[in-house]
Amino acid sequence: MRISRRDFLAGAGSSACLGILPAAATMALADDGFVELTAGPSLQKIYKESGPASSLWTYNGGVPGPEIRVKRGERVKVRLINQLEEPTSIHWHGVRIDNAMDGVSGLTQDAVPPGETFEYDFVAPDAGTYWYHAHNKSWQQVGRGLYGPLIVEEEEPAFGLDQDLTLILDDWRLDREGALDLESFGSLMDWSHAGRLGNWLTVNGASLPRFDLVAGAAHRVRLINASNARVLEQDLSDLGGKLIALDGQPLKEAMDVPSGGFLMGPGQRADLVVVPAEGRELALREISGADPFDVARFVILPEGTVRASHPTLMANVLPEPDLTSARKLVLDMTGGAMGQMAGMTHGGEPLTRERMRETGQLWGLNGVAGMPEVPFFRTSSGETVLLEIVNDTAFPHAMHTHGHHFRIVEQSRAMVEDTGAFRDTILVAAGETVRIAFVADNPGKWLLHCHMLEHAAAGMMTWFEVL
Ligand SMILES: [Cu+2]
């Protein structure tokens, strides 16, 4: 039996003043200029101070892993040291990266065995908010804490470091004592339904942390959804301000924050500019459940010398898709509980109910569950791909393209409003059809999958190759 979400939320309220902070990950810089990320086991309290420690896997001993910051166009150099008991790799989510550095075990590199190291060395071409996370058995490795923020600054950042906040949100499933529920990893019930949903939300690994904002100053607040499967619904009205970037890429024009709930699928990011007025504390609220609750609070410090300047971001230079000459492709999503499963295959064989139970494969892309031997498509570099994604399942999905950002061309139901920004992950509601377009200009083998990590593990994964 588990504590219900409601009980945990009640707990969140009563522990509001405790300010529980987990161990912070340390930044480790080696003599050769590489940042060292050591993946290893770590005992951390993610529930209450009086509660039990959780058996996490972390980078450098804390969750999230250290924030890595570079400037646009600079190299990111990271040495992964694997002190886990299983192989791992790191994916740099949203970065239009050299394919060999994309970190996808089994596609762009072999997973790094226990005790061994791997050096990631790549250029970060776009400024914005990104994140890194394990990409081998992600459903467990990310779910146990292997993730952290990657911030690519503009050449001349429009915001001072004190006015630049990263909030990485994670939805944990705790057991009745308040420790990470390890037994339920791999639950076929999760895999076939909405994925591993949690009952405890942390921001930067902490429960209800407080941040300082200066009255009258413009702050950049970077939100990252690191949850395995939860679509966060944030009430941003208290913070106010403007939405300036999504998935790392600036909007053409800043938009007022949505007045209702703001949906963020797993893997997605949103950047806000917030200029608080002097006065009461502000809160960021999660309203996806029946009982809305605060996830972070903001203390407003008296007006200082930093004045609001409402800076705008300089766009990254991405190739614009040309729809007139686009190559049109359809990606049909099937499977899952209450979904269409007829005709699905796995490993070249019909996917019977029995084989679903044996293999855990039960979601399909174009009828194929799991990584296909041959790519979904091959294309020459520079070609525009217009991809129609048809969600013929009973659940929403968060489709993520590796190595490329896309424009949203059409949405039949618009689960999330199209702001005109380039995205790397898109929420597709049950029954919805979306069309996205991008220039396939980055040579290599690229994963295309649902970022609800259980869905990906259970088959919702394919790849394409740019020649
Ligand atoms: Cu999904």
TrEMBL record:
It holds the Pfam family Cu-oxidase_2. The keyword Signal applies. It comes from the Bacteria. Keywords: Metal-binding, Oxidoreductase, Signal. Coiled coil: none annotated. Residues 46-156, 362-466 form the Plastocyanin-like domain. Residues 1-30 form the signal peptide. InterPro entries: Cu-oxidase-like_N, Cu-oxidase_C, Cu-oxidase_fam, Cu_oxidase_CS, Cu_oxidase_Cu_BS, Cupredoxin, TAT_signal. This is Multicopper oxidase family protein. It comes from Roseibium polysiphoniae.
